[in-house]
Amino acid sequence: MKEALQYSETEGRNFSREELVTLLSLTDADEIAALFKEAFDCKIRTRGDKVYLRGLIEISNICRKNCLYCGLRHSNISVRRYELDDETVLKEAGFAYDAGYGSVVIQGGERRDGEFISRIESLLRGIKKKGNIGITLSLGEQTDETYRRWFEAGAHRYLLRIESSDRNLYARIHPDNNLHSFDERLACLESLKKNGYKVGTGVMIGLPFQTFENLADDLLFFKETGVDMVGMGPYLEHDMTPLYEYRNLLMSGHERLLLSLKMVALLRLMMPDINIAATTAMQVLDPYGREKAIMAGANVLMPNMTDPDNRENYQIYNNKPGINDDAEITKSKIIENLESFGIRIGWNEWGDARPVDNRQ
Ligand code: SAH
Ligand code: SF4
Fold first, then answer.
1. In the chain, how long is the greatest CA-to-CA distance?
2. Ligand 1 atom at minimal distance to the Cα of residue 204
3. For 126-136, what is the mean pLDDT?
4. Please, what is the average pLDDT of the chain?
5. CA separation (Å) from 283 to 98, 123, 178, 276, 290?
6. C-beta of 57 in contact with ligand 1 (< 6 A)
7. Counting ligands in written order, which one lies closest to the CA of residue 316?
8. pTM of the entire structure?
9. 63 C-alpha vs ligand 2 centroid, how far in Å?
């Protein structure tokens, strides 16, 4: 990493695929620490030293899809399905606003029925009435028309992970039908961009069958598509999913976390001014996994605000952390953890990657 700063800070580093594979394979502790330090310093120069918080509302675990890795998949009949009522969603959004989070994320299983689409639209308008709060949606693949309606109702960011930018790997972790199409996912990312959203995507790291070359290509994909945000984290097993069968192919949890941190650091160097999330999945493998990601270049964190009754039913992977905590406890634990690492919080800030018009 000696040639630091021999690149334009705004453009970021242009690593080749081979260089990325080499860096992802680093085993020397000093070299890894130097990579993380360089990424952290890059973030401080380009995005500043603050971390932005997005209060997470897990609105529903009802999903029409059957992704082979996810505990919420339609065919998992052991899940008690729920949908938060409007009052609860507005209460949680109010908590985020009062807590100074600046932003909320509404995430849930994928549904395309008219009732759901209209409900989200009216909830967005309801949340906007509470104050100048940024809203991110993460509700899967929708039609161009739905994305447009939700944008007009007040959502301004959307998270839709590509899961893997390699279409063959994508095919191996999804059922073979037109509900799970790689091309459709790419088209959705295009549609989100066209409709004016700040677009976030991401991948799972340490999937069975995944290679370092796949991960290098994922990083190059983020750069080529020019996304505004990336949320990526370790793949974690769920015992009620088909992919669980391949758990013997997985790296250890420690290795998956380390690889995730390297992905964060490399992406920060490649795309210095975007938002990169320190994801909850990192916290599953290490209680300080998210703080470590922040020290390796991440700058966004999503405290969960779902009440404990429903948290346990929103388990996309096993061992979800903080399952018995409520929004208040989650908040105090996060503040304590961040303070112990000397990390500053951007209270009441949207924390967008590039300037937006801050529309109400
Ligand atoms: N239904 C929406 C949002 C909820 S799932 C969607 O699919 O976009 C959000 C993310 O959880 C997915 O994009 C996926 O990357 C991640 N996820 C699902 N199962 C996982 C697992 N077993 N391990 C790690 N991440 C997982
Ligand atoms: Fe549904 Fe999202 Fe899970 Fe796929 S990853 S099964 S779309 S909740």
1. 56
2. 15
3. 92
4. 93
5. 25, 30, 33, 15, 6
6. no
7. 1
8. 0.95
9. 6
Give the pLDDT mean for 297-324.
92
Question: With a 6 A CB cut-off, is 13 part of the ligand 2 pocket?
Answer: no
Res. 83: pLDDT tops 80: yes
Structure tokens at 110: 């994928």
pLDDT per residue as tens digits for the range 37-66: 999 999 999 999 999 999 999 999 999 999
Q: What is the distance between the alpha carbons of residues 349 and 53, in angstroms, rounded to a whole number?
A: 8
Tokens of 173: 């972790």
Cα-to-centroid distance, 34 and ligand 1 (Å)? 31
Q: How far apart are CA 235 and CA 125, in angstroms?
A: 34
Which residues are within 8 A (CB) of 226 and not within 5 positions of it... i.e. 6 or more apart?
Answer: none
**CB distance 236 to ligand 1 below 6 Å:** yes
Q: CA separation (Å) from 19 to 25, 210, 255?
A: 10, 18, 20
- Out of 5-9, 77-81, 354-358, which region has the weakest mean confidence (pLDDT)? 354-358
- Burial of residue 208 (number of CB atoms within 10 Å: 0-12, 13-18, 19+): buried
Closest CA to ligand 2's atom 8: 109
User: Does the beta carbon of 138 lie inside 6 Å of ligand 1?
Assistant: yes
Helices 114-129 and 86-99 cross at an angle (nearest 10°) of: 30
160 lines ligand 1 (CB under 6 A): yes
Euclidean distance between the first and the last CA atom of the chain, given in angstroms as a whole number: 43
What is the DSSP annotation of 218-263?
A: HHHHHHHHT-SEE--EE----TTSGGGGGGGGSPPHHHHHHHHHHH
Going from the C-alpha of 192 to that of each of 199, 221, 359, the distances in angstroms are 7, 16, 18
pLDDT in tens, 2-23: 444 445 566 899 999 999 999 9
Q: Please tell me if the CB atom of residue 200 comes closer than 6 angstroms to any atom of ligand 1.
A: no
